Amino acid sequence: MTDASGLWRLSAVELQRRFRGRSLTPLEVAQACLARLEAVNPQLNAVIARRDTLFLEEARASTVRHARGQPLSALDGIPLTVKDSLFTADLPTTWGTAALRHAQSPHDELAVARARAAGALIIGKTNVPEFALEGYTANPLFGVTRNPWDLRLTPGGSSGGAVAAVASGIAPLAIGQDGGGSIRRPAAHAGVVGLKPTLSAVPREYVLPSLLLDFEVIGPLARSVADARLLFEAMRGPSSVDRSSLAAAYAAAQPLPKGPLRILYVERLGNAPLDPQVAASVGRAVGQFAALGHRVDAGPLPLDLDFFSEAWPQVGQIGLARMFEANPTWEAQASQKYRDMAESGRRLPAARLWQILAHVAQLRREVAAVFTELDVIVMPAVAALPWAAEQAYPTHIDGQEVGPRGHAIYTGWVNAAGLPGLALPCQPSVEGLPIGMQLIGAYGADELLLDLGAAYEALAPWGGRWPALTH
């Protein structure tokens, strides 16, 4: 199967327009995406489970709906991928671990079900690190996922397969998951847009065990802000099965700020190292917000995050310990690294979890106060450029030695605070590697971030950048 048409390059919004105008059909696009998958996935290892026959059958059904002028939604006929940490009723959800090699839920995760109901076409599932707990993407079942911009390097994680699929043109959209930056950091490493929504803006039902308290949220990955918004609209909205989604919907309904926005640019967190090229690229991008007429100030983050620097690894350790207690066969087949993490979690006193929960509640109160004085915080999405694909994390940033989360310091606190964060591409590095920034807003301010991101994209477009893959 070959595709010489270049249909895989088209955005979801453009596909929607052409479907509506009858100049293109979902079946033609589905065939083009499968051809692109065949051409580039062997190099990337982004998609690890496929459903070609059903995918094409659904594309034919969508084509019929469009011919009748009866599409299910604006998403009808648009191909997408689903991260392999989210349940899909017709494909296994392995979570990258041997114990779940053949595990398959009878249900879709609610966000996946909503995308299907809107007519989206699921081409397959994308690779994750084991238990989706790493900032790169490799696991014992499917191996290493590689960055389309340089196959020697990682696309990040844990939504590494998702961003590699979007950046390479396998599908214009992907459903990802972000528990501590797992949408925003890989989006930055792959040169795509990634939205970590407000906590519970996309409600959860039929889920794997949470390893990171309530920090894990579902969000879209795309090549443009408009495309990300299209998928977000299909997945968002309250549901009685997730009561916290009612609060998120209330917050989202509040009026947006009028006039110029108050934007704080935070280049660094304390003395933590930042790659100079990332600093320079994000700094240049921030200047575009002033050009748009917004008030931009630079300064430190008005929050004390020292506790979370210490406690963050413990959250995952406690989560693993509890999960393995409930599922001992999973522990027996897990990689040694995660068994060791769970053992560390078992050694922590129960009071430590209550301390963490108290600090999370305090952080959420503090950010509410911060966003009475600000509308948006801008920070780098990740502190480092992409590193070797087989390596869990970069050991040095700007010549300084760092630990496992040295590259990830900018993102986790946003999850703990329950805030929305939007990753956007900036000017690439001198080597041509993607760099990204993140916009962070108040609880419920997802639309504000998407509007600001779209305005920035219009001034500094990236849609013409494509990785030079061999096919």
Looking at this protein, list some descriptive labels.
11-stranded mixed beta sheet; Amidase signature (AS) enzymes; 471 residues; alpha/beta; 15 helices
Task: Please provide a written account of the structure.
The structure is a single chain. With 471 residues, the chain is α/β, with parallel strands linked by helices. It has one domain: Amidase signature (AS) domain (Amidase signature (AS) enzymes, Alpha-Beta Complex), CATH 3.90.1300. 40% of the residues lie in helices and 13% in strands. It contains 15 helices and 15 strands. Strands 1-3-2-6-8-7-14-15-11-9-10 form an eleven-stranded mixed sheet, with helices on both faces. A two-stranded antiparallel sheet has the order 4-5. The chain has a two-stranded antiparallel sheet with strand order 12-13. The longest helix is centred in the last third of the chain and has 24 residues, at 350-373. It is globular. 53% of the residues are buried.
Q: Strand-residue fraction?
A: 5-15%
Query: Which architecture per CATH?
Result: Alpha-Beta Complex
SSE topology string: HHEHEHEEEHEHEEHHEHEHHHHEEEHEEH
Biggest sheet details = 11 strands, mixed
Secondary structure tally, helices: 15
Structural class call reads alpha/beta
Widest β-sheet, arrangement of strands? 1-3-2-6-8-7-14-15-11-9-10
The residue ranges in which pLDDT falls below 50 over 5 or more consecutive positions are none
Topology:
Elements: H1 12-20, H2 26-44, E1 47-50, H3 52-67, E2 79-83, H4 110-117, E3 121-126, E4 138-139, E5 143-144, H5 160-168, E6 173-178, H6 184-190, E7 193-196, E8 217-222, H7 225-235, H8 244-252, E9 262-265, H9 276-291, E10 295-298, H10 306-326, H11 328-333, H12 336-347, H13 350-373, E11 376-380, E12 396-397, E13 400-401, H14 412-417, E14 421-425, E15 436-441, H15 446-459
Parallel strand pairs: 2-3, 2-6, 9-10, 9-11
Antiparallel strand pairs: 1-3, 4-5, 6-8, 7-8, 7-14, 11-15, 12-13, 14-15
